[in-house]
Design a protein that fits this description.
- The protein is an alpha/beta fold and 639 residues long.
- Helices cover 36% and strands 18% of the residues.
- It contains 19 helices and 20 strands.
- The protein has helices at residues 15-31, 57-69, 172-175, 194-208, 279-297, 311-331, 333-340, 376-384, 397-410, 420-434, 444-466, 476-481, 502-515, 542-545, 549-560, 566-575, 582-598, 600-604, 633-637; strands spanning 2-8, 36-38, 77-86, 89-98, 101-107, 131-136, 139-144, 148-150, 153-157, 181-186, 212-217, 219-221, 227-229, 232-236, 239-243, 252-258, 303-306, 385-391, 413-418, 469-471.
- The strands form 4 sheets. Strands 6-7-5-4-3-2-1-16 form an 8-stranded mixed β-sheet. The chain has a 6-stranded mixed β-sheet with strand order 8-9-10-11-14-15, covered by helices on one side.
- α10 (420-434) packs across α11 (444-466) and α16 runs antiparallel to α17.
- 48% of the residues are buried.
- It binds nicotinic acid adenine dinucleotide, adenosine-5'-triphosphate (ATP) and glutamine.
- Residues 306-308, 310-313, 389-391, 395, 399, 455, 473, 489, 529-532, 542 line the site of adenosine-5'-triphosphate.
- Keywords: ATP-binding, Ligase, NAD, Nucleotide-binding.
- Belongs to the NAD synthetase family. In the C-terminal section; belongs to the NAD synthetase family.
- ATP binds at residue 473.
- Pathway: Cofactor biosynthesis; NAD(+) biosynthesis; NAD(+) from deamido-NAD(+) (L-Gln route): step 1/1.
């Protein structure tokens, strides 16, 4: 039998988009001679519909829309993820359709309730072994713990999280021997290196439960924060039959394989290992796709970025350039432009390759009289990304040159203006009001913050005028300790790297300079991270203000990923050979926890950020913490 999975780029309650992708997948599958097709979890409504799953009308609308899929299933068996609401309870189900009929709804038994998943808020888990009936416009179908048969092949279900439970409780343990095939429609969020875990999960399931296992994940940045990698896996008795390229820019990614169910396949002795995932490359692809989906789903025209020439903003600029490069290489220029929605088809907004010059007229300070012609990708970047350097007396030539060279090398529009006048204006006003001078000795933080804040209105104005999203550049390490000015450098509509730690940011930039060929990054890769908010002679660096970033990351992970107490964190660090004495480590641990507690309110106010690493510190996503708390005072005093 030819079986297939299709990854779909869906959007919550975008019925038109979601049905179109479902139809495309079914048509492609039929054209390829596929007999059984698995589509991802909740693909009809979108997985991330949040509290809409609790309404009566939305699941009802889903059932109504499911009727449109029926005629498309003539001659094929198709699995479609859909919520079903019965007696004021919503179930997360996989509908099985064939030849225009609905055969039934298999319901999810184990709900995802960790990290970025909050399913028990919306769904009720189905009880193994039970079934009920769904009534709809005079028809009735079975719902619950069901198995099906198609052309002699018996199949049952695990729906995403069902497969992430121990082997002796998950649905597969009750299906073994009763089915030939287990189908798994998933909405499994992307995190760096996670594909390896998923691969082992699927391969082991096929081996341990003596079956063929068909797995299909959602694709793309569905609803803002979480990106799905569109993984399709087919395995049989521990052997891999199919695995696709992840994180495609396409709307539909169909993969099929032939399985001879009539012939037994020998059980694999062991699971063949995959090469270790390349996290730098994974992050690049995920970030590019997440930005592309975000900008088009937000119906925006591109991005505006306050580019300091430092690590975080340089990474954000390269991410947009990579969004273009990766998207164009997969979709081609015309399809990339069409899908982005950021180009007016009536106008030829991007000049042809080699024509050059057009976008440079907008640059305030062209660095040569005869600018080098831009490549087609650079012209696209020029259309989609506008950057501005906003210097003060505390800014250095190094960061200005870094910002300017990078922007020009990727083709972004680049502006340069100073903000000293605005800073002096505000400082003068407050000095007048208070009747005293503000000085670095008495008003250090306030004088730092006003500079960061004064950068916000101008760049916001530019974003509004251009109808663009304003990127804010905060990383996870800064978010943990509140090393940012609220409504200053945190101002913005999207925060792409708030889930990534600063040490990773710095390493990624060095990798990108050579591996992705961004020579414009050579300046930033030679710089120490600095806020440049104090007078230059102060030689401010992030790590002098805080602590070494590697240590900050380690404390953060031990405290909030491993969930250790302050004392356990300290004891662990002492055994890890950090090069610091216990007393110094205790100072860092105390600093981390007090800054962490004091700054929860800032994390509550960050712009929406992407989940990219195995955890993040966003309270609306992975990690909840009280805004007001005792701040670990007792625990820290005892260190
Ligand atoms: N629980 C709570 N709920 C609501 N508000 C709370 C609060 N606790 C304090 N606040 C208020 O927060 C305000 C202070 O916060 P905020 O004004 O943001 O500033 P603040 O946290 O005092 O200082 C900003 C820090 O970030 C660093 N920074 C800033 C900008 C850029 C960079 C860089 O790396 O480039 C670094 C800077 O060096 C400084 O260490 C105060 O007005 C305080 O009253
Ligand atoms: N001179 C500047 N021009 C434009 N934007 C700036 C300037 N200084 C700071 N910013 C904005 O404030 C953000 C926060 O500064 P921060 O120093 O944390 O990041 P960075 O400069 O990108 O990286 P690093 O911390 O590694 O130097 C910057 O990413 C940038 O968006
Ligand atoms: N949708 C789900 O059930 C996802 C949960 C699962 N643990 C995953 O991360 O893939």
């Amino acid at each position: 039998m030819r079986i297939a999975g299709a990854a779909l780029n869906q959007t919550p309650i975008d019925w038109e988009n979601n049905l179109r992708n479902i139809r495309t997948a079914i048509e492609q599958a039929k054209a390829a001679g596929v007999e059984l097709l698995c589509l991802p979890e909740l693909c009809l409504t979108g997985y991330g519909c949040e509290d809409l799953f609790l309404s009566d009308w939305m699941p009802a609308a889903a059932l109504t829309h499911l009727q449109q899929v029926r005629p498309w299933t003539e001659g094929i068996c198709v699995v479609v993820g859909v919520p079903v609401r019965l007696n004021h309870r919503t179930y997360n189900t996989a509908a099985v359709l064939r030849d225009g009929q609905i055969l039934g709804f298999a319901a999810k038994q184990f709900l995802a309730n960790d990290g970025v998943h909050y399913e028990p808020r919306f769904f009720v888990p189905w009880v193994a072994g039970e079934t009920t009936t769904v009534e709809f416009e005079g028809e009735s179908w079975a719902l619950g713990d069901l198995t099906f048969e198609h052309r002699g092949v018996r199949f049952g279900f695990e729906i995403c999280e069902d497969a992430w439970r121990p082997d002796d409780v998950r649905p597969a343990c009750r299906l073994t021997g009763r089915v030939d095939l287990i189908v798994n429609p998933s909405a499994s969020h992307f995190a760096m290196s996670k594909t390896d875990v998923r691969y082992k999960l699927v391969l082991n399931a096929s081996r341990n439960f003596n079956c063929t296992y068909l797995y299909a994940n959602l694709l793309g940045n569905e609803a803002g924060r979480i990106t799905y990698d569109g993984e399709i896996l087919v395995a049989r008795n521990g052997h891999l039959l199919k695995r696709n390229q992840l994180l495609s820019f396409k709307e539909v990614d169909l993969e099929w394989v032939d399985v001879d169910f009539a012939t037994e396949q020998e059980r694999a002795e062991e699971i063949a290992a995959l090469p270790a995932p390349d996290e730098y490359r994974e992050l690049n692809q995920a970030l590019g796709l997440a930005l592309f989906d975000y900008v088009r789903k937000a119906r925006s025209k591109g991005f505006v970025l306050s580019l300091s020439g430092g690590a975080d903003s340089c990474l954000c600029a390269v991410a947009v350039a990579e969004m273009v490069r990766l998207g164009v290489s997969e979709l081609g220029v015309e399809e990339f432009k069409r899908r982005s929605g950021a180009f007016d088809p009536a106008k030829n907004e991007v000049v042809q390759a080699g024509a050059g010059g057009a976008a440079l007229q907008e640059v305030q300070e062209p660095n040569t009289e005869n600018p080098i012609p831009k490549t087609e990708n650079q012209q696209l970047v020029g259309h989609l990304l506008t950057c501005a350097y906003q210097g003060t007396v505390n800014s250095s030539d190094d960061t200005y040159i870094s910002a300017k060279d990078l922007a020009e090398s990727i083709g972004a529009r680049f502006f340069n203006w100073g903000i000293d006048e605005e800073v002096s204006g505000y400082v003068g006003k407050i000095q007048g009001a208070l009747g005293r001078e503000l000085s670095w000795k008495t008003d250090d933080l306030a004088l730092q913050n006003i500079q960061a804040r004064v950068r916000a209105p101008g760049i916001w104005l530019l974003a509004n005028v251009l109808n663009c999203l304003l990127i804010t550049t905060s990383n996870r390490s800064e978010a943990s300790v509140g090393y940012c000015t609220m409504d200053g450098d945190t101002a913005g509509s999207i925060s792409p790297i708030a889930g990534v730690d600063k040490d990773f940011v710095k390493k990624w930039l060095r990798w990108a300079e050579t591996e992705l060929n961004y020579p414009g990054l050579r300046h930033v890769n030679a710089l120490q991270p600095t806020a440049e908010l104090r007078p230059l002679e102060d030689k401010q660096t992030d790590e002098r203000d805080l602590m070494p970033y590697t240590l900050l990351n380690r404390i953060e992970r031990l405290a909030f990923y491993d969930r250790l107490s302050p004392r356990q964190v300290l004891d662990t660090l002492v055994t890890e050979g950090t090069g610091f004495e216990r007393e110094q480590l205790a100072t860092f641990v105390r600093r981390f926890y007090s800054l962490w507690s004091r700054n929860q309110w800032k994390r509550e106010r960050y712009a929406p950020s992407f989940h990219l690493d195995d955890y993040n510190v966003d309270p609306r996503s992975w990690l909840r913490f009280p805004i007001l708390s005792g701040g670990f005072q007792e625990e820290l005093a005892g260190l």
